[in-house]
Amino acid sequence: MTSQSPLKSPIKLGGVHHAAYRCKDAKATVEWYERMLGMTYTTAFAEDHVPSTGAYDPYMHVFLDAGGGNILAFFELPNQPDMGRDQNTPAWVQHLAFKVGSYDELVAAKAHLEANGVDVLGPTHHGIFQSIYFFDPNGHRVELACDIGTDAQYAELRRVAPLMLDEWSRTKKAPRHADWLHAAANE
User: Fold this and answer.
1) Would you tell me which of 33, 52, 125, 133 could form a disulfide with 185, CB atoms 3.0–4.6 Å apart?
2) Which residue numbers delimit the VOC domain (predicted)?
């Protein structure tokens, strides 16, 4: 269903309550996100039985404040097989992306991460934002991004988004409606 569909959902979302991922070690994960990204550890739930299913599966569920009302959560599942990743999806595809306020903050974040032994890729220029990329101790790819686009650029992207999705759905080839992003990135 595209945004052009006449059907409307009766649901009105108020934002993302939290996004949850698996971790290898809850304590080490909390400490890493506090130290590397300045998140605040806010809450933990621990149960022996999953509340939604009743299944016996002890877990620790930790929550970190990522700013702006956004919460990142992790589950440590000691009775489950070691965590892996989808081998059919490239490592760069699934990632957590967080916003920073400026390019200077992005560069400072890169320096902080590298000073703490984290390998960082970027900054990468995407036309309307710049990003750096790295992996957390669980193997999750993380992106920090700062917006640099203009209101006119964002409006144009909103305008062509339905056209691009429709073309992609028909052809499975990259539509060219936003090629100007690449030109801006290479200036």
Assistant:
1) 125
2) 15-147
Query: Is 121 inside any structural domain?
Result: no
Handedness of CA 97, 103, 108, 110 (dihedral sign): positive
Number of separate domains in the chain:
2
Final residue of a domain: which of 84, 114, 132?
Answer: 84
- The separation between the first and the last C-alpha atoms of the chain, rounded to the nearest angstrom, is 36
Burial class of residue 14, CB neighbours in 10 A (0-12, 13-18, 19+): exposed
Can you tell me the distance from the alpha carbon of 82 to that of 141, in angstroms, rounded to the nearest whole number? 18
Is-contact 138 131, C-beta < 8 A? no
Question: What is the span of the domain harbouring residue 177?
Answer: 151-185
What is the β-pairing status of strands 40-49 and 95-99? unpaired
Is the pLDDT at 1 greater than 70, yes or no? no
Predicted pLDDT of residue 4: 54
Return mean pLDDT, the chain.
94
The pLDDT tens digits for 115-129 are 999 999 999 999 999
Residues 91 and 176: their CA atoms lie apart, in Å, by 25
Residue 142, in any domain of the structure: no
CA distance 77 to 150: 44
Token duo for residue 7 = 């059907």
- Residue 61: inside a domain, yes or no? yes
